[in-house]
Amino acid sequence: MPAAPSIHNNLQLGLRANGTQFSLLVLINAFVGGMVGIERTVLPLLAEIDFGLASKTAILSFIVSFGIVKALANLFAGRLSDRIGRKRVLIAGWIVGLPVPVIIIFAPSWDWIVFANVVLGINQGLCWSTTVIMKIDLVGPQQRGLAMGLNEAAGYLAVSAAAFGTGYLATAYGLRPQPFIIGIIIALAGLFSSIFLVRETQGHAAVEARTHHNDAPSAAQPSFAHILLLTSWKDRALFAVSQAGMFNNLNDGMAWGLFPLYFALHGLSIGDIGILTAIYPAVWGISQLGAGALSDRVGRKPLITLGMIVQAGGIFLFILTSGFWMWALGSTLLGLGTALVYPTLLAAIGDVAHPTWRASAVGVYRLWRDGGYALGALLAGSLADALGLSWAIGAVGGLTLLSGIIVATVMYETLPGRR
Asked: Which of 223, 224, 95, 105 shows the shortest CA–CA distance to 170?
């Protein structure tokens, strides 16, 4: 008697074959990015103006709470996606994220803002990780860098648009509530799209697993402890990727929390601060469209190394120069360097990790990457309080440069055919 046909036999891998679902997931990731973008311009200013906080460490506490919780949520998102499916995790993330803008609008004290960012961290960890995993599932191995470029471009262009939009609304109407009404609309759109339009992609990962030729880690299902150790330390490429992701978000956490305060200290208006805050993620988002695809051709290691060095150069420009236009150039370089790195790191994880445990590996990588938010906020805040804003910004630039050197000396090339 012939065996029953697999329910996955009719599934195809590739961007073109899954264009509709892929495009929908790109849109949903834009919603995810928009939820973070509503905070980029306004919250550091809200801390000083509405709540009277003077300590930079206290102001950056909202990023610490966000980073720690998002990092842990990433870890659980990857493992849960392997166990119960991607779509359920995505929907859960949006349900958790719904109250965030409402809490910020009505927060009577800074503690409520910190709590809102705990909730936002869960939303971001579950939703962003899951959209990444689902896109990797759909496209297969051939266009992984392009897929990650499209994913991250959508997310960070939305961060930029929301940062610019909230800066405009804050200038016109005040810091609350108008800038955060955008967040309520975004959260509802993300939830309903995920419930009614998104399809499960775990079957696509099963299709790829049957033809996977990666002989680096074993194709057998390893324990989660083994995946954690392999991704964090034992595999040289995965270690290099994880530390680069951590230092990338370390400098992003510093930029998120300190740059608006640094610009305000030098007399820039809220409108100009909103523009500078938006340039960085806008360049980051647009440039990823080319960077991800380029990594499919030239390899992952060169782009990651170059990207970390360019980021460091952009950060140093903020403390070595002054004025709106020079800082706009610094924001541009920071965004360009991040664009070279961000989709390429995810593509490298997809290159090395077997499809049967890839979601868990993505979760571990994103644990380290988004832990950088908390580390960056703590480091930048404490250095700013002790030595001043310029020293804090310069120190983070130095650590970013060090991370690029580690990639150059430790990582092996992961792109299939170029190892």
From this structure: 105
